[in-house]
Amino acid sequence: MKFETLQKDMVAAMKARDKERKDAISSMVSAVKKVAIDEGKRDEIPEELVDRALLKEMRTAKEQLDTCPEAREDLKAQYQFRYDVIKEYAPVQMGEQEIEALLQEEFSEVLATKNKGQIMKAVMPALKGKADGKLIGEVVAKLCR
Prior knowledge:
There is one protein chain. By secondary structure, the protein is mainly alpha-helical. The chain contains 8 helices and no strands. The chain starts with a helix and ends with a helix. The mean pLDDT is about 85.
């Protein structure tokens, strides 16, 4: 995802007077800018950095949605809308079957050790940003059995 695309979509939402969408995209733009400044890449923001920031925002929105009390339907609807907007922009994550196939194909020698820590250490750099860390851990645990 290009940072410029996010900015253009935010401007389009402003012009359309879609406050909820503008707020959701604005929070994503802010999160990306913060990560870029922290890493010293303020001028040229790489796509990898944008994707990483969007995934973090998506996890935060999902957590808000999951922890929202059932009685607060208005708040739950607001969180759901924000999560859906972020999901539009976030990179597509790999599924369980895709992760398992990739691990068996590319990391078969490490999988043979059945050492979960060693496997995770080898696998995480290759899958960072492409799949959820929890899901990777679950697949590795399943393969270690």
